[in-house]
């Protein structure tokens, strides 16, 4: 997993709680690198699972809730660092339509080893979309947070439902703009 995801996660803990809290989480996660991340490095996904696991214990929130909150926060970080990849987008559904074929493609050019999920548009109207998400990491709550934060970025709000499909590691988001 790309370092910017880890550095953003730690930034979130520092900002939303405190730098001491972030240090405690890192220490309790007993990471080989002691939580020394650079934005352009790559680190095992297992380290993110450990960090989230510690946070579950400390906060009493579920991993899914925490991943959602982190997704919401992460969009701001990614948008700040890579605002240019959003330059050609005008609204949330158009952005999601081009996530797989454009935005994450640009990301892959910048970070060739990025391990990106796959998205497929199943249907689309002016105000609705059915979007299929595939990732062995099954980070659908992270995607939900990213989508809701993206909606805010485009000054709109979404109604969403998430369903797991019979295909392994695959989920469907039914999205409508309200
Ligand atoms: C500013 C726009 C965006 C940028 C620059 C961006 C970039 C990235 C990057 C760098 C990663 C990490 C890859 C790795 O760990 O190797 C990532 C992962 C991910 N992105 Fe995006 N992303 C953007 C928007 C979105 C949006 C709106 C969604 C929501 C559907 C999304 C869904 C995901 C998910 C779920 C992952 C986690 C990897 C996984 O599921 O296996 N991204 N993205």
Automatic annotation (TrEMBL):
<protein>
    <submittedName>
        <fullName>2,4-dihydroxyhept-2-ene-1,7-dioic acid aldolase</fullName>
    </submittedName>
</protein>
<dbReference type="Pfam" id="PF07700">
    <property type="entry name" value="HNOB"/>
</dbReference>
<feature type="domain" description="Heme NO-binding">
    <location>
        <begin position="3"/>
        <end position="159"/>
    </location>
</feature>
<dbReference type="InterPro" id="IPR011644">
    <property type="entry name" value="Heme_NO-bd"/>
</dbReference>
<dbReference type="InterPro" id="IPR038158">
    <property type="entry name" value="H-NOX_domain_sf"/>
</dbReference>
<dbReference type="InterPro" id="IPR024096">
    <property type="entry name" value="NO_sig/Golgi_transp_ligand-bd"/>
</dbReference>
């Amino acid at each position: 997993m790309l370092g910017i995801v880890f550095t953003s996660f730690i930034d979130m803990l520092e900002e939303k709680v405190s730098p001491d809290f972030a240090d405690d989480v890192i220490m309790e996660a007993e990471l080989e690198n002691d939580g020394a991340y650079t934005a352009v490095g790559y680190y095992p996904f297992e380290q993110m699972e450990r960090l989230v696991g510690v946070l579950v214990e400390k906060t009493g929130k579920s991993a899914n809730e925490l991943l959602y909150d982190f997704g919401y926060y992460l969009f701001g970080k990614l948008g700040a660092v890579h605002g240019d990849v959003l330059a050609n987008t005008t609204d949330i559904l158009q952005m999601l339509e081009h996530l797989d074929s454009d935005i994450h493609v640009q990301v892959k050019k910048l970070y060739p080893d990025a391990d990106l999920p796959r998205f497929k548009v199943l249907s689309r109207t002016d105000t609705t979309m059915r979007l299929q998400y595939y990732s062995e990491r099954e980070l659908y709550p992270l995607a939900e947070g990213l989508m809701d934060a993206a909606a805010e970025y485009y000054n709109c709000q979404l109604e969403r439902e998430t369903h797991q499909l019979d295909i392994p590691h695959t989920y469907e988001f039914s999205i409508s703009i309200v």
